[in-house]
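Quality-control log, excerpt.
Job 1 of 2 completed; input and output follow.
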Amino acid sequence: MSSTHASSVGDNLSLPYTWQASQWQRLVQLAADQKMPHALILSGHSGVGKRHFAEAMGYYLLCLSPVNKVPCGRCKGCELNQVGTHPDLFILEPEDGSRVIKIDQVRKLTEFVAKTSQQGGSKIALINPVEALNVNAANALLKSLEEPSGDTVMFLVTQSPTQVIATIRSRCQQMEFGLPSREESLAWLEPLAVGHDPQYLLDSVGGAPLAALQLLEDDTLEHLQSLVDGLLGLAHSRCTALELAAKLHRNEVLPVVEFMMKWLQLGQKKAVIELQQGSHTDAEFELLEVLSSIPSTIMYRFWDKIVIVKRQLLSASNPNKQLLLEELFMDWQALTKRSQKLTQSRQQMMNGLL
């Protein structure tokens, strides 16, 4: 996360976001008491800054003379982190073009953990996202978690802790990051969302501020607005599931799935009032009306399906994304048609009674 989107000390030394203050204070105190756990799983909703927090805490632990519980920005450790060359910081993420962390990458991490610190202090490893580890890579990581050398601290970032294998979870302490309050999110987002409605952006991603900002940095917002039109098109037979999947598959699929989950939650709560808190389009109100007409038992079955799809997308299995979208959209079209038939049957019954 660049310094334009978060508080920073010096160049490229980020601080935690305001809504992460309690987690930050907790770890700072543990470090002061020399009780910092050797491995922490940072879990929570996508778009709340878990990776950013892990990196910021890594900078703090590598700083030689912190000031007011943040990195000083002037010592040798901070200077190395400012240019991205600190030898005691190791970041493990999928390589470009891949969603999987491979065993060869974990072997490099194992070598890093086994060595002594080059700067004489802590060593920091950041794994993001930990659910991207394939089976062999996950198993290879276990030894490093069991026998970390020296003052090694490992941060494992995930938005889906249930997908992290139990043998890894059992070797780590847990730290959760919930959604910030609406007030905190809007206060942070408003100065960055010039020319846009921050409430609408926030509502579009279910309240995650970084995810809301991301809508402005690519064509995701337009993409998700197309999804609303597409779901209505399927409900009213104006398009087919295959056509909509082909159109939306061009971009990232996970935001589509998460956006559908957000709308299902609103529909389950019949949450017209939640929509009225922000600025929403006529199409979005119409979509909520469609969702509100679907019986809860049918909605819950579809919810289970979409949760499974999300898990597949977050896993290291590299599923066929267009096929997953096609199946979801066909199920959506089927459940809306079934709902319309039930509504028509109820109306005919009422007419007969009258």
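Job 2 of 2 completed; input and output follow.
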Amino acid sequence: MPYVSITGLRIKSPLMAPLFAWHAIRSMQQAKRAPACRLAIARRINGVSHTMTVWDNRQAMLAFLTSGAHRKAMQAFSRIGTGYGFGYEGETAPSWDKAHQLWQEKGRT
């Protein structure tokens, strides 16, 4: 079953913006190259940088989460900002409005 992941991060300080951009760009490139990734998009909503990805399954998402550029980004996460994610099994990606609503209601650190 496909797995949808929605994340959001607010940088702690404008001084962290370059470091965040470095990790975000590299992580998004990694996701877009991953064979099991069906969709990888990002958007800024109310000052929070969000990603929405759709994977072949939860195991594929977890493999991405703990590897390569994304692993390095996760290691720097607490220095860069605060945020959380939400994931669920679903056939298609939600609209950004729905994704943001789900993230606010069900997301966790």
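Post-run check on job 2. The mean pLDDT is 94.
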